[in-house]
Amino acid sequence: QVQLVESGGGLVQPGGSLRLSCAASGTIFSIYAMGWYRQAPGKQRELVATITSIGDIKYADSVKGRFTISRDNAKNTVYLEMNSLKPEDTTVYYCNAVLSMSCSPGIKNARWGQGTQVTVSS
User: Fold this and answer.
1) Does the pLDDT of residue 99 top 90, yes or no?
2) Which backbone phi and psi does 30 adopt, to 5 degrees?
3) Are strands 18-26 and 10-12 parallel, antiparallel or unpaired?
4) 24-28: long-range contacts (C-beta < 8 A, 24 or more apart)?
5) pLDDT tens, position by position, 15-65
6) Are strands 116-120 and 10-12 parallel, antiparallel or unpaired?
7) Pick from 28, 40, 17, 15: which is nearest to 115 by CA?
8) Quick check: 6 and 21 in contact, CB under 8 A?
9) Longest Cα–Cα distance in the chain
10) Are 8 and 16 in contact (CB under 8 A)?
């Protein structure tokens, strides 16, 4: 089985910072990409930032210059450093990984974490 375990969410004041972590564990053969998405009430889940196994990075325009995604391949972990947080960043953030499992190395699968709440409020 493969699981994504998230940590780092919480309450922060506007202008503050948080660092989210997501660690993938289980019978993983290869991880092709990991990233963060968020979903506000009544809206579709949207990309925040992704990073591929070779280091290609994408950011949503709304977070570019404020958020930084990074990874530790040895730990199968992705991080999201969120700076200059705004109230509109308040929502549930989900970790995502595109990976193959040891039982089926040739098949790519998307896995999601449970989500972690980020609240930006004074």
Assistant:
1) yes
2) -155, 140
3) unpaired
4) 24/76, 24/77, 24/97, 24/99, 24/111, 25/76, 26/1, 26/2, 26/101, 27/1, 27/2, 27/101, 27/102, 27/103, 28/2, 28/76, 28/99, 28/100, 28/101, 28/102
5) 999 999 999 999 999 999 999 999 988 899 999 999 999 999 999 999 999
6) parallel
7) 40
8) yes
9) 48
10) no
CA–CA distance, 70 with 72 (Å, rounded to integer): 7
Other Cβ atoms within 10 Å of 7 Cβ, number: 13
Instruction: Give the whole-angstrom CA distance, residue 120 versus residue 90.
Output: 5
Tokens found for residue 119: 């609240």
What sign has the CA pseudo-torsion 100, 103, 107, 112? negative
Instruction: Answer whether residue 94 shows pLDDT above 90.
Output: yes
Strand order in the sheet with 77-82: 2-7, 18-26, 77-82, 67-72
